[in-house]
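Step 1: inspect the first sequence and its tokens.
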Amino acid sequence: MGFGSYDESEQTDQSIETDDGNAVDVHANDHDGSVEFEFDSSEESLIDRLQEMRDEE
């Protein structure tokens, strides 16, 4: 066999038996709703703080 070759007999059966009893339900904790944020600072003070943080780096 050369580089990149494969055994065709390994490619015949690609089925995998799975046990769904141990599967993780990724939607078990889905929530419908909304999120709201309230900021006590003004837009200008937030931009100034961002600039300060960038200057620190």
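Step 2: inspect the second sequence and its tokens, then contrast the two.
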Amino acid sequence: MKKAESRGSAPKSKRAAESIDEYIAGVPEPARSTLKQIRAAIQSALPAEASEAISYGIPAFKHNGVLVWFAAFKNHCSFFPTASVIAAFKDELEGFSTSKGTIHFPVDRPLPLALIKKMVKARVAENGRKKRH
């Protein structure tokens, strides 16, 4: 996994996080542990050529463009797999708070790690189709 230089801001820092490691380090528990789990699930579903970045001030993974983002907030962690993926997995996301491009995961509930992996794989396929056109 490549680590890319990037711009952005850590949640509790006045200085911009320059890496996903730095971003996560600036997040208090229990959200820090939740972010680590989300990151590991994402990484396990990515091609080896994918890279890490900070995009829009939050952690992201790229392969043929940005695939997904994730971030910590006061009462939840968010996963941003794009609107098309949320629509494709809407039945499996029942019970989670979602918006057009975001899924909120409460930090006090188990994460749907297998579902996160499936959504990442869907994004990899989606970006692969875009690259060919």
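Step 3: confirm your contrast with the notes below.
The longest strand covers residues 66-72. Residues 2-13 have pLDDT under 50 and may be disordered.
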